Automatic annotation (TrEMBL):
InterPro entries given in the database record: MetalloPept_cat_dom_sf, Pept_M54_archaemetzincn
Species assigned in the record: Mycena alexandri
Official protein name in the record: Archaemetzincin-2
Coiled coil: none
Domain of life, per lineage: Eukaryota
Single GO BP term: proteolysis
GO function term, MF aspect, one: metal ion binding
Annotated stretches, region: Disordered: 24-59
Pfam family, one: Peptidase_M54
Lineage of origin: Eukaryota, Fungi, Dikarya, Basidiomycota, Agaricomycotina
Cofactor (UniProt): Zn(2+)
Length: 456
């Protein structure tokens, strides 16, 4: 559902109405609390969340709109922090091997200069948008993974002819590293959005070959469209967590493709929790059939489902971090009504940063999240990707803090420092407001600040 204007006046902290039809059963409050706790807990011993914490706290339920990843696979197994710790394949962060490296997009040899055009989408709106800056992504990851050094990989990579051949539709191109030339398969784009695509598995193999000895992980950035298996139309990224490498493509995140790819900019996070938008997505989907027979209700005693938690307006009676994020988001120029090139470039950067953080999370051994709306959720579409938050939920945050050895507040303040350098970036500005609402130690002062914003 794409609309040109919406104030997002009513927010939902719960999953959509489609969640129950999809068969998703969210873990109980007790199960979620235990999932983020390092020590095994006797039943009933944990402090239970209050209704206000559950309904308007910083962490919302996963949206579960029709077609979302979790809606398609509602029984995907959750990963608790204890299960994460017990994973024999997980790489531990150790002194001397704790650095995250980011490899900049490869240069293109003059003999195959036509390859540069492969990164230019055919169906994009005719607007000039600057691609994400590699150093910005490095700096974001340095804040997100605060406590682990994040560096740009020394040296450079270069795409060159494979076997000396320079045809314009090569089956292979070479990726030159400091020590070898790795063959990368190419193919014509199946959906015609880009001229050609590079094979993701070959790129991951190349990343493994250049992994520094002191690297905890390496992320390779590519501006080209990628595919993993022949059946794919495209892919945006993948991590070989056990091998410590990840690859992301920024190609499909180009804002000029949003209409072609049905990405609703207006309802990107945090506005994805707009109740009107969520309801409309459910009603417009062929999958949402109210006439479908309902499953029998189990008689087993379980935690009662709370009434839908919504705020009638952005008056911030609850002062929730989500409301603070939406206020900050709404204060910036519209992403739909004649956005500037700078605004769209910032949008592109935010998308790349979030996906980079997600894929590196897999290198830490963190699986896809099923507990909350979270940066580590799986995604089934570019539309869903845009709706997901940049932050880690309590369960996955506990894993990351255990790995990095830093405190939550220090990490949040590092992220705030980065976001503050990008005041016109919708995602990062909303993220900063979300964090600030949690760190605020004076609710009355924050209430006055929010009230002043509404008056002005």
């Amino acid at each position: 559902m794409a609309v040109n204007t919406c104030d997002h006046n009513t927010l939902s902290f719960l999953s959509s109405a489609f969640a129950s039809q999809a068969g998703y059963k969210r873990p109980s409050t007790q199960e979620r609390e235990e999932a983020a706790t390092l020590q095994p807990v006797l039943k009933g011993k944990l402090k239970r969340a209050t209704p206000s914490d559950e309904d308007t706290g910083p962490f919302c339920e996963p949206l579960l709109l029709p077609g979302d990843d979790l809606a398609e696979d509602p029984e995907y197994p959750p990963q608790t922090i204890l299960e994460w710790l017990d994973d024999a394949d997980r790489n531990k962060v150790k002194p001397g091997r704790n650095t995250i490296y980011v490899a900049a997009p490869p240069a293109v040899d003059s003999k195959i200069s036509f390859v540069k055009s492969w990164s230019e989408p055919k169906h994009a709106e005719s607007i000039s948008i600057e691609a994400p800056d590699v150093q910005d992504i490095v700096d974001y990851l340095g804040a997100f993974y605060h406590g682990m050094p994040v560096k740009l990989l020394p040296g450079s990579l270069r795409l060159a002819p494979w076997d000396g051949k320079a045809t314009k539709t090569p089956r292979y191109i070479g990726l030159n590293t400091a020590t070898e030339c790795v063959g990368i398969r190419t193919r014509a784009s199946k959906d015609g959005v880009f001229a050609r695509q590079l094979n993701l598995n070959d790129l991951l193999d190349a990343a493994i070959s250049i992994l520094p000895k002191d690297a905890f992980a390496l992320l390779l950035l590519v501006p080209f469209d990628i595919y993993e298996v022949p059946e794919d139309d495209f892919a945006c990224g993948r991590a070989y967590g056990g091998s410590r490498v990840a690859v992301i493509s920024t190609a499909r995140y180009h804002p000029g493709l949003d209409r072609h790819q049905n990405v609703d900019r207006l309802h990107s996070w945090p506005a994805s929790h707009c109740k009107q938008y969520m309801d409309a997505c459910c009603l417009e989907s062929d999958s949402f059939d109210n006439a479908r027979p309902k499953k029998k209700v189990s008689k087993k005693v379980s935690e009662p489902t709370p009434a839908p938690a919504e705020s009638a307006s952005l008056a911030y009676a609850t002062l929730s971090p989500l409301h603070a994020a939406v206020t900050a988001y709404n204060a910036l120029p519209s992403l739909e009504e004649s956005p500037s090139s700078a605004t769209l470039s910032a949008l592109w950067l935010g998308r790349a940063c979030r996906t980079a953080a997600h894929e590196l999370g897999h290198c830490l051994g963190i699986d896809h999240c099923t507990f909350y709306a979270c940066c580590m959720q799986g995604t089934a579409s570019l539309g869903e990707d845009a709706r997901q938050p940049p932050f880690l939920c309590p369960v996955d945050l506990a894993k990351m803090l255990h790995a990095s050895g830093v405190g939550k507040e220090a990490r949040y303040r590092a992220i705030l420092g980065f976001c503050g350098k990008h005041p016109h970036n919708h995602l990062l500005t909303a993220y900063a407001a979300w964090i600030s609402a949690q760190l605020s130690e004076n609710p009355a002062k924050r209430a006055k600040s929010l009230a002043d914003q509404e008056v002005s």
